[in-house]
# Entry
Amino acid sequence: MRLASGVFDDKEELFWVSGHKSTRVSQVANVLLPGSGPWTMNRVLEGKDPNMHQLRQWEQWAESTGFEDPKQPDRLLAPVSQPGKIICVGLNYRSHAAESQMDIPQFPILFNKFQNAVVGSGATINPPLGAMHMDYEAELVIVMGRQGFNIPEDGALDYVLGYCNGNDLSARDLQFRTSQWMLGKTSDGFGPMGPYLVTRDEVSNPDQLEIVCQRNGVEVQHSNTSDMIFSCSYLVSYISRFMTLMPGDVIFTGTPEGVVLGYPEGQRDWLHSGDQIVVSIEGLGALTTVIGDAKLERS
# Structure
């Protein structure tokens, strides 16, 4: 299934995506299970496996009957709009470590973002004033579907709900201001995800997916998740040794070569206002992000 979150009449709703068609779960549920109430991704994450089985049955019914939803989302949200944990992996592609002139890490390099960074496809990002060296990072994102601690690597992907595109937007001047990366990684909107989540049953091997990033229509990153140093199953297992992973937690698995930071210093063309970044991973659609002007207003 392709599951997405969006805003319909100022309310968050979960919907299926099939081609260019979107169908709200609540509209089908009201026909097949009257009184079931609103459906969001959080409701799916808080439930048990029967929720997913039910969703599949409802989607099949909608497709077989030609059910039409008259509304489209006013705005896309990240598939999981309020993840409990946003865990990111640095230097997880051999090619990216090489272009960064850094050693291959012995252990996953972990850092985090917060919920303020989460936006959906189509969002315009206004960097903080003073963030001059803006960069893109196309990434595969793992979305957890089950609670787990000390998960064995063999079978770790059974704990995954699905996968989506991510863009680990980074202000490099802020990132390297100190030895801690957080300042340049989790400003408002620095964690776009989407446009939808593809459930794990439809992704046969997350460690063998083509990953592409385009800047204003020009390809700037092109690799495959097979170049990752630490596989998806290893990352889930490793992280769960030290913290309990919960449904809805997301893991940004790292970026391949081609980021602005990887160019010689005199050739770095940092992102500018008006730039459009599109991340597309095999089978996961395309995540679009626009860079806006610096954020000036107070709130």
